[in-house]
Amino acid sequence: MIIFEGTFLQIRYDADTQSLTEEWKLDFTQQVEGDIFRQPLEKALQAVKETQATKWLCDNSERRIVKSPDQLWLEKTYYPELYKNGIRTVALVNTKDVLQTYTAKNHLQSVSDHKINIEIFNKRLPALEWLKQQ
Which of 27, 37, 39, 87 has its CA 20 to 30 A from that of 46? Predict the structure, then answer.
């Protein structure tokens, strides 16, 4: 089921694996910040609540750099809400900015008190296979 489809991001829910998938796409046609960045992710949070998803695959390999206000929103709002609403297993596909991926992992672990299972991958397919086995 497609939750959001845009030029810069696709968010899907897979009922078989009870997982939410974010796949960022490299897009230079618009600035992806502020409401444009946050609104699809808010739809993803709503989908987590409605579907009771427990797994999340975030493929950031093509995502552009996140501006500071949006990074703060991810850390203070998005990640805590993912955990609060049931996400317990996370596969992160590396961005070109490895530091950003490890920052996401650290924040997810801190909001969950390390009760979340997180793995980092360099490619999408191994991440998806791992998520299916969890």
Answer: 27
Kind plus residue range of the DSSP H or E element containing 72? helix 68-73
The tens digit of pLDDT for each residue in 10-49 reads 999 999 889 999 999 887 788 889 999 999 999 999 999 9
More confident residue, 45 or 105: 45
Query: Domain residues for 57?
Result: 2-133
Buried b (16+ CB within 10 A) or exposed e, 4-26: beeebbbbbbbeebbbbbbbbee
How many domains does the chain fold into? Answer: 1
